[in-house]
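Dear support,

Our group has been running a series of protein-ligand predictions, and this particular one with zinc ion is the one our PI (initials K.S.) wants archived with full inputs and outputs. We had some confusion internally about which version of the output was final, so please treat the block below as the authoritative record. The input we submitted was:
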Amino acid sequence: MTLQTTHAGSLPKPIWLATPDQLWAEWQYGGDALAEAKRDAVRLAVADQELAGLDIVSDGEQTRQHFVTTFIEGLGGVDAENRATVQIRKRYDASVPRVVGDVYRGDGVFVDDAIFLRSITDRKIKTELPGPMTMVDTLQDDHYGNPETLAMVFAGILNEEAKELEAAGVDLIQFDEPAFNVFMDDVPGWGIEALERAADGLASMTAVHICYGYGVKANIDWKHGLGPEWRQYETTFPVLAESSVDQVSLELAGSHVPLEVLDLLGDKSVQAGVIDVATDRIETPEEVASLIASVAEHLSLDRIYPSTNCGMVPLSRQVGAAKLKALADGAALVSG
Ligand SMILES: [Zn+2]
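Confirmed final output from the archive:
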């Protein structure tokens, strides 16, 4: 059994593209120079993933400043200039765009990126989109006045985008929903309804990424307050098990998630986060293999896609590349 490896989404950016080692870093260029720099960075990100030996590669989100707001800013009905500061996921303040009218999708937001990615690698490719619940938590709504209504509008827009990504040759379409680990009460209702609407009718594999966040201080402090066992997944996994989404991307490495929650996922496959993104320490392949073996006590190997806990954009490029290699080497030990 050869395990298929991938990673959660974002990868560190080169120093000439954006300020390194930070989230939401400013671009170093504008205009055509920025467009060219982004494409060059995507080539490097793909080369790093191929060199490490990953099976399903992404563009490393090199074209995005933020995994949620960049998508929202690509839509109509949104004011990206006169921004607001809101607290997101009950944890930290962020500068976010404002919804000022009916939102709509004009041109594709990440479709050209996917076409480019498809043209430069023969491996399977994935594209990440923000999930509807996380989107409504990462903006200021001056128009709809109801998060559920806006989430369903976004779900329709995401579905249009996802169908064009699929047509561009994307094998795995992932919706990032870290908000599912915070607003658990709304997941069984409009949260899962919006997610399924976003993923409706796709032939590509679909995934939802639910993590405990990037390895930044606000998230690490939050994790310290979650107690010895993190049981957030216990609420959402039974709902996901009944859903039409194929795969769940989750955080396991260095976390306090009890592995028996995996038993709640029905027949879903998992992107098992076996690389901790909140530390610069590089896992050994043996550690990675050991965690995969523990996951395999709950899920058959064909349902396990070794991955990272979350995106790696706040890390250095050297650390990011080394962690990708540890991931692939560890998975190879299990694959035999
Ligand atoms: Zn994440």
